[in-house]
Amino acid sequence: MITSELPVLQDSSNESGVPDAVSLGMSVSELEDPTDPKGKKKRGRPGKPPAPNKKPRKSPAEKAAGGARGRKANGIPQTNGEGGEPVTLFEVVKMGKSAMQSVVDDWIESYKQDRDIALLDLINFFIQCSGCKGTVRIEMFRNMQNAEIIRKMTEEFDEDSGDYPLTMPGPLWKKFRYNFCEFIGVLIRQCQYSIIYDEYLMDTVISLLTGLSDSQVRAFRHTSTLAAMKLMTALVNVALNLSIHQDNTQRQYEAERNKMAGKRANEKLELLLQKRKELQENQDEIENMMNSIFKGIFVHRYRDAIAEIRAICIEEIGVWMKMYSDAFLNDSYLKYVGWTLHDRQGEVRLKCLKALQNLYTNRELFPKLELFTNRFKDRIVSMTLDKEYDVAVEAIRLVTLILQGSEDALSNEDCENVYHLVYSAHRPVAVAAGEFLHRKLFSRHDPLAEEALAKRRGRSSPNGNLIRMLVLFFLESELHEHAAYLVDSLWESSQDLLKDWECMTELLLEEPVQGEEVLSDRQESALIELMVCTIRQAAEAHPPVGRGTGKRVLTAKERKTQIDDKNKLTEHFIMALPMLLSKYQTDSEKVANLLQIPMFFDLDVYSAGRMEKHLDALLKQIRLVVEKHVESDVLEACSKTYSILCSEEYTIMNRVDIARSQLIDEMTDRFTHCVEDLLQAGEEADDDDIYNVLSTLKRLTAFHNAHDLTRWDLFGSCYRLLKAGIEQGSMPEQIAVQALQCSHYSILWQLVKMTEGAPSKDDLLVLRRVVKSFLAVCQQCLSNVNTPVKEQAFMLLCDLLMIFSHQLMSGGREGLEPLVFNPDSTLQNELLSFILDHVFIDQDDENQSMEGDEEDEANKIEALHKRRNLLAAFSKLIIYDIVDMPAAADIFKHYMKYYNDYGDIIKETLSKTRQSDKILCAKTLILSLQQLFNELLQDQGPTLDRTSSHVSGIKELARRFALTFGLDQIKTREAVATLHKDGIEFAFKYQNPRGAEFPPPNLAFLEVLSEFSSKLLRQDKKTVVSHASLKCVILTIFPPEESVETSWLRGNDSLQTPGALAPPQLTSTVLRENPRQATDTHLPDHDSEPGSENDYVHNSQMQMSWLGQQKMEDSRKDRTAMNYMKARNQTVRQTVRGLMEDDAEPIFEDVMMSSRGQLEDMNEEFEDTMVIDLPPSRNRRERAELRPDFFDSAAMIEDESGFTMPMF
């Protein structure tokens, strides 16, 4: 609490006693009334002596003398040293411990005693609320203009931090913002009858806020704009009260003046005239103040660069227009809101919409908003598609309010723009659009009349017409066909309509009465689909897939509603569903939807309500559906329904199990006989024989998916069909596909029994033989002429190899080891070849493979989805180490070409394989690039055009691969080093067939390899260069046919990795020697990039070093060989160095690249001269020694033998 006493702080340098700054408070102990439990100050009546427990007021001299306690000499606000209570207005408002009414009353009291000091304290309050450390002193206030004061405060502003009270996080500062706004409102309310009209307080405050709002300092501008807008809001409230008083005074005056002369009180008339005049003067004063704030602050700040400031202005002008609509609700003010609807920040647009919502909620204001609506309606409707979902939601709600106020305000086109948003994936947008749709189409305008009409027609529900309208709307939504999304959008606004299942059933089952239109077949299908979606929504009580982040926990009320709805729909559809199935049993689409209803039943109702006869009727209808249909979706729905009804937790399980077993027995017997007839007929089988086998097999396959049918031994008959088809080659593709699928289900059910029990060894061996024989059949089917058969066999092979992999023994199932299968190299090759032939194909090839059938866009998408599934199935085998990782090279190399179709799958495969084995993954990456390079050599010959798009494509792929290594070079160090080692060996693998004086044919591959050089540590780059130089020397002196190179490759070095990469037997483009190398006799001359093969031909120094060695005698001496190796080594190092990127990378801990810790002898012949030691680990301070560029010639020394040695 603050007191009205204003002690003035004396400046030690001011001998004249002029006060520098003011303080608004003293200790609480001096102010609180001990008898007042709330601690509030009681204001006594005039003339009443002060309470004995209160100290008498101090004189100004006493105030000046006592004000120094608890404050610094520079005037910076401090807290009271005794009790730690706030002593400044800013601190009081920030802490919020005192009632704002009391704080304002104390300030008003101080203002009445000395308005300059009180006003100075208010000015400092605004300055401190802006986060400024400076303080306005009394001489500054009296002698300086506002602009000078603001400039002075700007100089003292703390610019170290961009935070200030209004932007600081935390509950304290959030409360401060509220208290700040409340203080301004209460201040104007308490001063509205006298002080604000003294032409001093308001003029000073408005002038100060106007100056601060024009400051370049954001904190000043933000805080002063908020203060000014709240001040304006308070003044608008005062003006409204004055207007009301004026109207009341005018009515009293008119009533008194209209009285008869004898009864008229002239004195009262004069008093009323005087009061009216006074109110008018006050009104004029308030209007002047408001005009000053509006024109001086609002007009400039509503388009401020800071979105928060713009939002404050728009929010407050909305309050003014709603509070005092007679003065502010006109086009002169509405235009600012309309213009700001186009603001680039969603926060500001959101404030505009909410301000308008407050106006359109009041229907009495619609006439004043008519012109604004016509002008900005299109913009508001377009904002329903705003990129900010919050803005879009509020825009839809505003359009709904406009619709409620005036049906004619929105055109049909405007409404259609909102209609389709009910299918939005963002649920709040869809729910808001559902509310709009409900208001426009599904709200009953005259419920009583519609109920009377329904009774006359014999209907129990009046919602028949609304449900018909819902069906029509769903069918006319050409862009979307998601019934579940439509139901979810309308669920909150139209639950009574959507839960009227009795009305829906009446429309489907009963004949239309007079005056009703007959539902078409398409409308019946749509109504059934919508009805099933409403049942699902009621039973599950959560949005459909794609809306929301997941299932949320239901409240007790929602849980009770869910249970009630589930009981209601169960009781109704237990009786209605058999009748619906009986009517539509021949329509596959309707039946498939209707059979989803039982999964939402509370099945205990069958036994609790003694409704077994309805269960028997349902089972009878399902049996009839199974016998009449062969469509997969219908059969799957029947199978799933039987599975749900056979749950062991319900007492009806036995009854349903008997009916199911009878059905399976009949189908199995029929299938066995049909198979025998088909096999006996052989190639002479007619269409009836094929149809009988296919239809029965489809039914059994659908049931085998959800039910254990192993006791009927369907695998034997299916296997016979498949073997006969392979041997004869004439089995219809549909029968083969279904037989493969049914056999697959049989194997899985047998495996389930093995895992759940304790199988004997004989049982495991029997299952192993079954699996082995089926895998062999699937492998043979990969060469089938029918694409569906090949695709089905491939998917089943991938699934079974995944299931019966080494992971089968995890989780304590070591006893299942006999069931583990590891694919041999032949099977792996066939799987990879299938992927290359059926996944990585061009669109033209795909169209040709469709045998001329015309494909629309949906078929293309379906085909792409199928190919993605094939690639994903094979990729899983690579990820889980079932297929050898080098097989992934043929997949990785297509990353760029098929990025749009399979980029995500290939990238995820690369990520997972790197997690399992970084080294092998790196070797696979470089292998894929080598394959592409070999293919390019085969196409273009040994002379590559480095500017061609093919070379650029390989380099871009390498760059993309390099990005996948990430930023942690320590983790990827060994993998990157291995990649460079394999790349360098590939570049120098073959000698040029034209002679040793020509560069190796694969040397250009170093340019591709250079894309990875940025991932090398600085200390490793020189080792890579040395390795490349040595490879070149060995290739030159010891050609590949000699054994020295192989002996060197067997040596250990820091780049060597555990295990060598096996020859890529699984790849379709196996690395092989270029056939053109033996036939081409010369290289064409053309321009090329520096560092290419041509440099070796046209560079005289290089050419002499190569040619000179060829002219030497056969009996070369050791010294001559060493000199040659030195010259060649330096030349190649320069070439390789040009291809390596020497980025300014951070120096990481210098760890060993191999587990052995050093480079051992790379060749037995040079043991005494080639020993390279990596340095021991250094700490951070010693790492500075590694900063020199190791590619600099100064970092290289020569040993006695002439070799160039790396120095670390």
UniProtKB/TrEMBL annotation:
GO terms for cellular component: chromatin; chromosome, centromeric region; cohesin complex; nucleus. Residues 298-383 form the SCD domain. The keyword Coiled coil applies. One of its GO terms (biological process) is chromosome segregation. SUPFAM superfamilies: ARM repeat (SSF48371). InterPro entries: ARM-type_fold, Cohesin_Scc3/SA, HEAT_SCC3-SA, SCD, STAG. Residues 262-292 form a coiled coil. Signal peptide: none annotated. This is Cohesin subunit SA. The lineage of its organism: Eukaryota, Metazoa, Chordata, Craniata, Vertebrata.
